[in-house]
Queue: 3 jobs
Job 1
Amino acid sequence: MFRLEARASTPAWFNLALPLIAIAATLILCSGLIAIAGAGVVDAYGVMLSASLGDSYAITETLVRAAPMIFTGLAVAIAFRAKFWNIGAEGQLLAGAVASCFVGAIPMPGTLAMLLMAIAGAAAGAVVALVPATLRIKFKVDDVVSSLLLNSVIYYALMALIEGPWKDTFSGYPISPPIEDSANFPVLIEGTRLHLGVVVALIAAPLVWFLIARTTLGFRIRVTGENPEAARYGGINVQRVLTSTALLSGALAGLAGVGEVGGVHFQVMSDISPGYGYSGIVVAMLARLNPLGVVPAAIFLAAVMTGAEAMSRATGVPAFLSDVIQGTALLAMLVALLFTAYRIRRVGAQT
Amino acid sequence: MSAVFEQIFQVGFLAAIIRIATPLAFATLGEMFSERAGVLNLGIEGIMLLCAMAGFTAASLSGSLWLGVLVAMLVGALMGALHALFTVALGLSQHVCGIGVTLFSSGLAYFLYRLIFGQQSVPPSIDGFKPVPIPLLSDIPVFGPAVFNQFTLVYLAIVAVPLAAFVLYRTPWGLSVRMVGENPRAADSAGVSVMATRFQAVILGGALMGLAGAFLTMAQFNAFTFGVVSGRGWVAIALVVFGRWDPWRSAGAALLFAFVDALQLRMQASGLGHIPYEAFLMLPFIFTIVAMAFMSRNAVAPSALLKPFRREER
């Protein structure tokens, strides 16, 4: 017989090993779907790898795709640290995209435009995240449900905008007017799409890590998440911490939208986010809610997404494989996390 | 005022409310059984989507709609078992597992649908369920044609509500479900297997979510699209809270939501043409959030909701 036994401490190498084990398990499990689709498993994964990380251009494309998931991953990580169940990063991203698109369309000097786009996008995301936090504090509304429902509200609001006042009267396409050329984020390497926002995302991760690990607010966020009663007893205003967490989390998710508008699409359309907000949850869990781990986790998911499209073109396996991989990775990581709290011991029937 | 009344009591409007409420009622009852046993199932959105796809596929390949319904329910039960495996047997976070199940199921639904049907400009459709008028009852003015000239699945939903109430409040199994959701330790002492009961409740819940998905693709739309569920699962979770974890109240909540949704559909069609229809699609979701704000303060969730049970830990 085997049984789970509580573990007193976790070895440090687990932090790296667990996500790798989870990812390996995921790829093995999902290879079944590749086989069902009638392609060679090794071929398919090979195409995915070379198309996403095989040469320098592919790497820049993967980084461009990772940037929004770094932001949503950080947004989710900081929220979950405080046990504020913000599942609304998707809506907050869309709100950030819309706000930054409004600002970016106003003619003004480029640097100022980019700065104001970032501020507007972060503010919009923060305001949206404030709704579930306030509803939870004032009305005891479950934050999971309200933030999920809010995603639908924001999505339809965006659709109403681009089908209504923003609709392109000339072509009739449901897309917003483009932002000013001067507001386009500068491309860092000629001939690629690697834009300024990617670097901002990479810098944001250590900043958020510093905030959580080394500042008073970060300490309050962690204590509130781990033991709200102890936090209250220790004189921490739990409601205020939740509010601050929501504002920070929403602002980070909003910045994900800013990067997509300023650096990738230069306008807003209905499919500006292929679920980056939900992917942020997978990223944050793979990173074990550590902001520094968010970067490699986001790059992994970005590589899967970029790679899946190339794999689909080469082998005919539907690119939706990347969605299955995301869900499986999240579940595999949760199971792997069991081993941080428990170890498997043989009990009984000893000879 | 009377014009509004006439509008509301038109046969078509009443029938629309009933049709919109049916999948929500199945989904809400499913989520309610799961939560009454202490397990929040955020996988509902993805489970409904996967079952909508599975039912549609089975029906379109076999030509039998009822086989499609059966497959949808089986897939739902299977996904419920998966969620229970993670949250009940392994005691993992119900929030994150639910999101994981939703991401996994939706991904699988997209993947398999594309694999089976390929990429087509017009999504393939099936000859879905037809309304079956009930003799005599369907002759009642206004009410009759709206309620008693519906799909068989609608009648099933109408029967499911009292049946769920009976099972939950009047059977030994229902008592076990309520016990493991309120006080698993006491249930365990009384000889009720917490794990088995929770598994059964989450699996039953999954099957009901499957029925909800089947209704969408086989009675309401007769085709599968990637947005066929579009938040109905999340709404069902809110309706369980709104209905205070009671079958009758939950069904009432589903009807209320369906009323708002049907009203919003009417407004879309009523010549307010300069307002994009998406603006109206927001209304039921905003209504649900506001309703939650009014109801949640006094709502009492099952005490053991979200709490895993490990026998050896005290």
Job 2
Amino acid sequence: MIITNNLTKKYGDFTALDHLELRVKEGEIYCLLGANGAGKTTTINLLLGFIQPSSGSAFINQLDVQENLLETKRFLAYIPENLMLYPSLSAVENLDYFSGIGGKNLNKTQLEEFLEEAGLQSDAFHKRISSFSKGMRQKVGIAIALAKDAKVLLLDEPTSGLDPKASNEFGHLLQKLRAKGVATLMATHDLFRAKEVATHIGIMKDGQLKQQFVADAISLSQLEKAYLDTMEYKTIAS
Amino acid sequence: MIRKTINKELKELFRDGRVRTSLLIVLLLLGIAVWISSQQYQKTNADYAAAKVSEREVWDNQGEKNPHSAAHYGTYAFKPKYPLSLVDQGVDKYVGTSIFLEAHKRNEAQFSAATDQTGLARFGDLTPDFILLFIIPLLIVLLGYNAFTKERELGTHALIKSSGAKGWKIVLGKWTALFLPVLTITVVLLLLAGLVLSNLQDYGVFQWNSLLVLGLVYLLYYAVFTNLVLWVSQWTKRSGISLVISLSLWIIACLAAPKAASNIAEARHPYPTRQEFAANVLKDKDAGIDGHNPWSKEAKLLEEQVLAEYEVDSLQQLPFNFSAYLAQKGEEHEAEVYFKHYNYLKEQYENQSGTYRSLALLSPFLPARFLSMAIAQTDYATHWDFSDAAENYRIATQEFLNNNTAQNTRYGEIGYKATAAFWQELPPFDYNPPELGQILKNNRSNFGILGLWAVFSFGLLFFTTKKNNDVTI
């Protein structure tokens, strides 16, 4: 579903992403861990076609992103760190608009069903987004992905700033999508959440993918150690 | 996708209190402007109808009188307000409403509304054309300056970009959503004006097709502004900058360019001062026949020619009154002099209009303004047409009066009086302004320039969308 071949992005002399080789298959959740500037967001922006690679290529559903800028977007949904929606529109209206421009015309009942599936409380369906918390907005974002019937989900720090309960709910939603066969790539700082939801975990540094793990094959403490070692941090105990 | 964008944009617009207030203010201003204009229109035309009847009664009931005395006594040609002046008053306020028609002299129109007002008139009037030509483009700026920048500032652009939506569809949706309120306001205003006018059967001949063309001109003008405002919003990064640039465009197009064009046109093709004009006319008049001076060189020459033509020895032997004949020839000479000098003024006006038209490439306001006034029959061209018709009527009247004297008296006979019924034989002054077809033909260049603006601005929007790789936000 998501493939990158030697994907590289340079800004002058600075290499933001360095020959990234990545594979995320159907029903997998791949979490990219790394400090700020590691290249996580650059990877997502390249997969979205927001920026052009310096070399290498990225594929979504077997289509080259750069050659099929609009077509590849038919298969994907994107939730940024701070999902912003139209504050003067309700959740249903926002979902109606974003699913509509994505090519899905849904009736009111269908829209409400998607919001419900995304975990939004029914009394919030027709409230204006301006009164929503970040967690509620993220749920609308998931509803957009569900409504779009996305095959690929790209998430950029989606749980940052969420309280533990909202973060936990978000994790459950990702599992739901995984069960539907959605391939998810999530950039995050949250080791705990990554371990909770991911099928695969990668650690990036300086634009390079330094380590990869199958999530089930590693414990949280091993993941933490691997992360700190990669970052060359020293723990307090040492 | 386009429909979804239109719905979304309209919901956002109408849920914004500032937008609702702006629209309400514009509608209120329009209502007041139409009401004031319709009151003025009805009053002016009621005055026109009363004055026309009263002046004709005075003419018809002069009793027995010498025709040349009647020629000096004179009469008036009144200019009506045309139906669409309700929408665009054009230059009507400044050019006068009636022309005094008398022997030997072509007079300019007098009694303009502006001369009856105090210095406060400098602040201008609240008229529908002010709202249509100045305020609605400003409304387009206020409604549309952040059409794209708000998406970037809000962060929703990322979701739109990732949705796979085609850029041109988003642009078309936003364009339509911005244009729809303007279209509604314009259609409501013009319908209102049309209904008011079609119920005023007594005054002028109102034609819906003229109103329709006027509406199309305004909509084309608004389309240009919509394109420019969206284009600015598309390539600027922040709403504040977009607002400043869009407002600057409005100021240049609607306020600065017309005034600059006026100054440039006046500097390149100046009108003579009133004193210069009068002195030049007098000089040319003195060089020809004076109907009141039978001893002048020119009169003597005419006398010789007429005697030779009729093969008689004295003026008394002529089959008509030579004095009246001389008066008529004097009239014809004076008419030629006035024709020459007024034609020069008209040429200067045409030259100024040409300069305006060439500068219309700097602002869509200029061709729209010209077209609006022309279709409403309140432009200078219509006034010139009226003035020429009044002059032709004056010349015909003088000929009518002089011929009566020439045919009914002999040279040297004094004290002749035409019968009381004679005056009614003069056909009344009946002026018909140019038809819509003629107006459109005369204004082809203005249509062309406004059309060029539309093509150019649509092109800007189209190519900016394409340049952004069809991902516009």
Job 3
Amino acid sequence: MADVKIGAYICKGCGIGDRLDTKQLAQVATRDAKAHVVREHDFLCNADGVKMIQNDIDSEGVNRVAICACSRRAKTEAFRFEGVAMTRANLREGVIWVRPATDEAQETTQEMADDYIRMAVTETKFMTLPQGSEKATYNRHILVVGGGISGMTAAVEAAKTGYPVILIEKTGTLGGSAGKAWRRIPQKAPYANPEDTGVAALIKAIEGNSQIKVHLNSTLTKTSGAPGRFAVDITTESGSTTTENVGAIIQASGYTEYDASKLTEFSYGKAKNVVTQAELDAMAKAANGAPLKNKDGKEIKSVAFVQCAGQRSTKEGHLNYCSGHCCLDSVKQAMYFKDANPAIDTNIIYTDLRTPGAGGEDFYRSGQNKGVTFTKGQVNEVTTDGTVKFKDLILNEDTEEKADLVVLATGMVPNSGVDIEVVKQDEPGQWKSNNESVLNLDYRQGKDIPLLKQGFNDSHFICFPYETRRTGIYTCGPVRRPMDMEQAMEDATGAALKAIQAVENAGQGRAAHPRSGDLSFPSFRREGCTQCKRCTVECPFGAIDEDEQRFPVFNEARCRRCGTCMGACPVRVISFENYSVDTVGQQLKNIDIPDEFSEKPRILVLACENDAYPALDMAAMRKIEYSAFARVIPVRCLGSVNTIWLTDALNSGYDGVVLMGCQKGDNYQCHFVKGSEMAHYRMSKVNDTLTTLNLETERVATYEVAITDIERAPQLINDMAATVEKVGMSPFKF
Amino acid sequence: MSANTAVVERYRNSFLKEVEANVEEGQWVKMCMQCGVCSGSCPLGPAWDHPPQEIFMMIRAGKRDEVLTSSSMWMCTSCYNCIVRCPRELPITHIMHGLANYAHRLGIAPKNQPTRKFAKLFWDNLSKKGRVNELKLGIALYFMNGLVSGIKTALKMAPLGINMVKTKRMSPMEYFGGHGIKDTKGLHAILKKAREIEAAKMQKF
């Protein structure tokens, strides 16, 4: 490795020069932190300032750069230097904007800035420039699992963009659930009539596209590798297996209709004229436009639609969610009858009519216009002769209606494979494929994608909908959440784009969302590893496998660079080139800790760089003040916080530690899904450490902070300052 | 067969279709989405047996007698709050009047409903000469609830009437004949034709 040559650059712009003694800062950088080159500049982010830094890199051999100016979230375009490891000292948002410009505050404010200079320069000492993975592989092929409307759309969209697609379908025909339907909910204005499903056109588009290779009657019997170099075994019904290499995977395994035979109160299975929505659509498709007849051949003169059959219900065995498509699908199906013969009575019995999508309400109105009636009621029973007994919720009375055909709107059950929480992965060396599994991953953590709620695959509904906890594998369609065909098609398009991103990132050894473009990846010191397996278990993305000796095997292309493994490692052998136990640990050890009697406590704040740190930055923009005794260090994810940092901090005399991560749990906001949860779990055990050190447990506080907590985040720091005042200074000051 | 039983026969179970065919603006009933804004907006809502939302639901549920014999639609004061607020833009006020009128035509509207009585007096008064004879209408209203209460009210109002005559605000001679429009015969012909059209429309459905 080349010699370390650190350049520290202190900006005097944005009021930093007025509020702080920058000469002293420069001295701190030179004398205390031992930076090799230290320069002040009036306006560091302008062309001249940037040129000055670049010049030092080019001619002075500076290879570590500490920019002592604004927050690392500001001016990222200006401060971009190739070939050097870089960090930032946050003097603007972190110091002058959160402190009052008064004479009394001056001393502590200056100390705050001095410490941030020490921290930044120290951090660069322990950083190296990420070199990228040598294993990066570029494979443009995209595998789509499932030949329904979602899968086919994803395949067509990816192929249109020029990426070759391999599409596998379990059954003998493309089309999936959508292919069994007669018509679909309209997707175009005026949203008045059922439309052709578009499935035939999609099949034609696939068959005519040389970029798309289709495997029918096939399933995945093994998926191994990582983004850019997945190897998948595609096995046909007859047992022959072909292995393909792909760059990314889209899982569009769809849904199965809820088993209506569980709904004995609705006489399903006992009465001939009680069918599910899917069955009615199949009947309509078979009739191909001819009048629909009952199974006994009789003409249908009246139809009752029972909405929310076995769903949106807390009863045992029922689905307690809304499947989202059924209300409009019932309107569509009622139109099958009304359009053929307006004299047929069609009544939709609903508790809450939900009409998602741009045209949903128009379609509902169109149904009303055509004479479909809507009754707000709760159906309690359907007798075998087709009498629907329900409670009218407007008139508040029990009533009934006899219909020639009763249609049950049963819900969607996702085809998400095996639940890896329940079905444990086979031991290394004894891996076998599982027929229930969709992907048959050979990952340490299990064969399928983890589930979040109700058996649906994990995804953050708002912030990053297509992401799963398996990098390079994206889900779309009803396997992700219940949806109708239009939403599934939109979803598939999104997933196709995510898969393309994954392919391109993997090809360059870059991280995927949310640290998109990051070239660093974790490595471990094998000699130090105790094979405790904690990293392989806690990695939220299943990136780490185990070899036969139970040593971890990192798959960098699967890694999202959150550092949860680093936080988990009890022997601290895991590190990134530019983020390690040392880059943070040495920062917190290298600040100035005044003695016990100075009345200047020190509070360490480890703030998640995704939400908590921006919240603090925004608080600074609004000039919300917080304690001058706080020293904030951004972390990639709270999950990367190794408890050694806490022990070190407390041992070296910090009086309090505040940890800020994102919301955890089912409604998580954690960008790494499980990182914050892991951190909270680990911190729940930190009391032992505190007790051993004879310290009060209040000195460490862990919080869930959202990006919108602009007032709360500084308040939490001030709360800790108040706590320290209450419990007194730490006795560990030297 | 009465007018009522005739339509019952014709529509059998579907009261909604009957309303659509025969009630003014009745084709809008099916568009109600049961949000209840009309019922919540009606200033007289608490006085109604069935607020508009319920009336619409009852029509769909085929509760023909309950709806047509109800006094609810007669309670509407035409404030138009419901029309203004209905998210589906149903002309609710008009539908209420339409329903009331339809029940009246079938002869099953509540007999002693005061609004209905007043409406009938007003119409009979107006249609005779094409102008409202205020004196006759006023006196008719005094006697709307029987002879005794009529005499009582008349005596109570007598001083006012005498003063009005004195100041030439009212002519007692109006009670005997009174003045009308120029072409009364023409008006009667128009009304007759309108009734024929209405009847034909009802027949058609």
